Amino acid sequence: MKTAFLGDSQAYFNMVFSPALRQQIAGISELVSKDLITPEKFSSVDLSEVEAIFGTWGMYSLSDEQLAKMPKLKAVFYAAGATDSFAAPLLTRNIAVSSAWRANAVPVAEFVMAQIILSLKNYFADSRTFTCHEGYHAVPHGPGVYGETVALIGNGAVSTHLKKLLESCLNLDIIQIPTEDAKDYALLKDAFSKAYVVSNHLPNVAETEGLFNEQLFRSMRTHATFINTGRGAQVDEAGLVRALTDRPDLTALLDVTWPEPPVVDSPLFSLPNVHLSSHRAGSINDETRRMAESAIREFQRFEKGLPLEHSVSWKDIASTGTRKQ
Predict the structure, then answer these.
(1) What does the alpha-carbon distance between residue 90 and residue 73 come to, in Å, rounded to a whole number?
(2) Which residues, listed in sequence order, are joined to residue 234 by a DSSP beta bridge?
(3) CB-CB neighbours of 212 under 10 Å
(4) Among the CATH numbers 3.90.550.10, 3.40.50.2300, 3.40.50.720, 2.60.40.10, which is that of 2-100+285-318?
(5) Cβ–Cβ under 8 Å, residues 62 and 88
(6) I need a labelling partner for 59 at 20 to 30 A (CA). Which of 168, 176, 229, 243 fits?
(7) Is there a contact between 101 and 322 (Cβ–Cβ < 8 Å)?
(8) Residue 136 carries which DSSP code?
(9) Counting Cβ atoms within 10 Å, is residue 123 exposed (0-12), middle (13-18) or buried (19+)?
């Protein structure tokens, strides 16, 4: 089967598809070019016999003219998560699309698990106050991990994998609100008021924008933590800032914001009980290899005529539960 690498970012391509993985793909298919075919190079490469494409972050949406030059294209194997930006023209032509979104969910779940454990030990609040001799707490705040309550909002790939990780090695009471029930304010309020840690994993759809409001944050337990690796727009930022200002005992761990990064004078930069990270919970550096390996396995299934395990449908691109990847 003839294949090609498509994308507009050489940096992302180099990160995700290591030389060894590119060699592996060359060994199981016939690459029409060993190089990444960018939009600028598209017209200079003969793609008339290509049946499958490998891509990652930077995969571009193919125009009618470009697709006409690939009449034998049957599938696109995307070594990343969200496919919203390019999948529609492919699905319209019954070209299969496979995404490594489940592979990308793994590092997000691991990242959040680490934050949950530290939050249950009240690590972040303790580090804020232990800046001098008098800040030492002989009797620590925080309940610890054993038997405590954690709330996971959403039941997509990240939340599902995270729940399995937590259940496999920790003794916790886990509240998981299914994605379709997340707009039930009574359920949300109950979760926010009961859990010592609340972690957001909702999909990036219009219905979830501003869902987490000031009242929910004010209802949280003393020294509780809110974690967001979902989308920044799902948080009423002004309400969060007001709640955190009035409740310095609370902690917010934000890997995503809206806008991203926050505006220059955003209070999120100065509030002591906010910990920002630059959208890094998803696959980075070595972790990206997992996504490429997932794409390769899917290609091998496709070549053998087996059903894809991570195929993308119209429903998936209408309500993407993955992060920027």
Answers:
(1) 9
(2) none
(3) 24
(4) 3.40.50.720
(5) no
(6) 229
(7) yes
(8) -
(9) middle
Q: Where in the chain is the domain with CATH 3.40.50.720?
A: 2-100+285-318, 104-276
| Cα 317 from Cα 325, distance rounded (Å) | 13
Q: Under a CB-based contact definition with an 8 Å cutoff, are residues 16 and 57 in contact? A: yes
| Mean pLDDT, the chain cut into blocks of 10 residues (325 residues total) | 98 97 98 97 97 98 98 98 94 97 96 98 92 82 94 96 97 97 96 98 91 98 97 97 97 97 97 97 95 98 97 79 36
N residues, the chain: 325
Ordered strands of the 274-276 beta sheet = 172-177, 148-153, 197-200, 225-228, 251-254, 274-276
Residue 37 pLDDT: 98
Pick the CATH number of 104-276 from 3.90.550.10, 3.40.50.720, 2.40.30.160, 3.30.930.10: 3.40.50.720
Q: Quick one: 110 exposed, middle or buried, by C-beta within 10 A (0-12, 13-18, 19+)?
A: middle
Q: Hey, what amino acid is at 114?
A: A
- The DSSP element (H or E) to which 163 belongs, if any, is helix 157-169
Question: What is the DSSP code string of 224-283?
Answer: -EEEE-S-GGGB-HHHHHHHHHH-TT-EEEES--SSSSPPTT-GGGT-TTEEE--S-SS-
The pair of three-digit structure tokens given for residue 40, joined into one six-digit string? 């600028």
Residue 135 is predicted with a pLDDT of 84
Residues 6+ apart with CB under 8 A from 176: 151, 152, 155, 159, 163
In the chain, DSSP assigns E strands to 2-6, 30-37, 52-55, 75-78, 96-99, 148-153, 172-177, 197-200, 225-228, 251-254, 274-276
